[in-house]
Amino acid sequence: MKKIIYLLLLIVAFNSACKKASTDGGIEPTPTNQTAALPAGAKDGAVFINNGTSAIVTLYAPGKKSVSLIGEFNDWSTTTLPMKNTPDGNYWWIQIDNLNPNTEYAYQFYVDGNLKVADPYCEKVLDPDNDKYITAATYPNLKVYPTGKTTGIVSVMQANQPLYTWKNASFSRPTKDNLVIYELLIRDFTADHNYASTLAKLDYLTGLGINAIELMPINEFEGNLSWGYNPSFYFAPDKYYGTKTALQNFIDECHGRGIAVIMDMVLNHSFGQSPMVQLYFDGSKPTANSPWFNVDAKHPFNVGYDFNHESQATKKFSKDVMKFWMQQYKIDGFRFDLSKGFTQKSSTDDAQFRLYDASRIAIWKDYNGYIKSIDPNFYVILEHFAEESEEKVLADDGMMLWNNMNYNMNEATMGWLDNSNFQWGFYANHGFAKSENLVGYSESHDEERLNFKNITYGNASGSYVIKGNLATSLKREELVAAFLFSIPGPKMIWQFGELGYDINIDFNGRTGEKPIKWDYYTDPNRKALYDAYARLIRLKKNNSIFNSTNSTYSLAGGVKYIKLIEGANTVVVVGNFDVVNQTANIDFGSAGAWVDAIGSSINLSSNSYNRTLAPGEYHIFSKAALK
User: Fold this and answer.
1) In whole angstroms, what is the distance from residue 116 CA to residue 109 CA?
2) pLDDT, tens digit, for every residue of 310-324?
3) How far is CA 18 from CA 14, 21, 30, in A?
4) DSSP one-letter string for 47-106
5) Is the pLDDT of residue 201 over 80?
6) Residue 9: which H helix or E strand, with range?
7) pLDDT in tens, 330-356
């Protein structure tokens, strides 16, 4: 009997020590979990029922031994809300009651007695380190982080979230081949770096004539000052740019101006702040039992942790993310970052990485089919850069492919001709059946700015000098823009390229903050470039001949030209990219009067156009006047 009493005393003492350790920040007790099937209506994350007074909260976490829900509704206790585990061991869920539908509740999951993570499906997170730098003007009444109650990123849920009333339900998207996309980083576009301040610049953008904005990643990423390619939460807009309703209003107002909004979507990888990474992590990389991530990246261009897109768990998650943004935010398209990385074939260099990959094609056809089942007219744009035969299959399936012409076009603007042939801009050279599937650009967030290289490395001959000469370097940008917008198919420009932005891409580090140069707009030379862009974009959008399937060109030498034919009309774009006078000798196809969209008309006595062009001189001739 004494032995039994002694053992009972030891058990009581042990339990008391455990409880004290829990309150002192030591080892916390493990909750007792039950097994039960998911209730009807439950899904990943929080689903509110009973008019918002109850919520069913669910976590997909196969193989875990215990999970409990902790948060403001139970004073962050790790034992009072043990979650039920489904019979297959994959899902954990619990119903919590007595909630106020109008209250924001911070919460986390407590997993296996040693890990606290936020909800991967939550629409808002609180960050103990970075939220303090978000101003009230950008995010009014931001909920305070529960300091002293828990650690790490926490989720937020609320039944009665502020609702946005959409005004422009009848928005009609521009056709693919007529898209002129403006790629934009909220952080470096205005000093206030938020949706409201960006919205205030819509007059500037509509004046330019663009009809789509591509926002660099806007879902929660690590830190605040980022390009956004280090994502962690895929359903939560990053608070550094503003509230959910501010983003919805931005999209709505763009639609009201005839501007589509395309979202840069990063599903090749995720970063360590992600609860999906943390749930299956050995301290240095994902574990082999992760439902979503490869232990090691399969390709040499990966950053963060590499998603396995052949995993059914990853497919489901990715589709959930896509559907959410399409429906909740009325986004018009996705530009998928590093889409070539959606592979399970291992490679050590780009030569291997870009080879035709049937499994990768199957993944993208599946995602594209899913997106089109929700919205048949949705833009699906891939940053792919794989073997041409693979890109052709994807284009034939209706996807659009990024087409980088930066190097060759920049050689042309600098006046260095050997590598200045940018015929890769033509869709037929890719084997594509339609121009609408190739998104051509001379600048993107990832490329050195044309005018930085013009001013730093430009060619010269006699008094004609590009290097160090702002006026001349800007005219060279106008010259190449005339050709860019004349090549059939959708086009993209990088923010402030229309003003000749000339700050090195590596200024303050490649992804670091860049000077916001709205003063450029008051410089007459830079404003002249903006006006030229606007004129060229208008010509592209208003005249179907710029999407003609009948084209010839010569883009290898100093004198370059593009010839487009549609019905009875012909357009010839001709320019001298050399730094000395050059004679153009081009078969226009017919004699007589030709109208110059940027200058004076000419009258040809024969089919042949034979003129001496000064360096940087260009013309856009047509038989019938262009609109």
Assistant:
1) 6
2) 999 999 999 999 999
3) 6, 5, 10
4) EEEGGGTEEEEEEE-TT-S-EEEEEGGGTT-SSS-BPEE-TTS-EEEEEE-S--TTS-EE
5) yes
6) helix 2-23
7) 999 999 999 999 999 999 999 999 999
pTM (two decimals): 0.94
Q: Do β-strands 333-336 and 379-382 pair in parallel, antiparallel, or remain unpaired?
A: parallel
CA 436 vs CA 2, 26, 119, 175, 396: distances in Å: 87, 60, 39, 8, 11
pLDDT of residue 228: 97
Q: Which residue, among 477, 419, 519, 457, has the nearest Cα to 618 in the 3D structure?
A: 477
Bridge partners of 183, per DSSP, are: 214, 494
Residues 6+ apart with CB under 8 A from 372: 378, 380, 398
Q: What pLDDT digit, counting tens, does each position of 401-458 carry? A: 999 999 999 999 999 999 999 999 999 999 999 999 999 999 999 999 999 999 999 9
Q: Nearest 5 degrees, angle CA 388-CA 214-CA 165?
A: 135
Question: Strand, coil or helix: what is 315?
Answer: helix
* DSSP string for residues in 535-553: HHHHHHHH-GGGG-SEEEE
Neighbours of 121 (CB within 10 A): 25
| Residue 423: closest CA among 438, 444, 434 | 438
CA dihedral sign, ordered 112, 115, 120, 123: positive
Residue located via tokens 């904005």: 213
Q: Which residue has the tokens 């989720």?
A: 155
Q: Residue 425: how many CB atoms within 10 A of its CB?
A: 28
pLDDT digits (tens, 9 = 90+) for 271-295: 999 999 999 999 999 999 999 999 9
The residue behind tokens 């004699």 is 591
Retrieve residue 305's tokens.
Answer: 């942790």
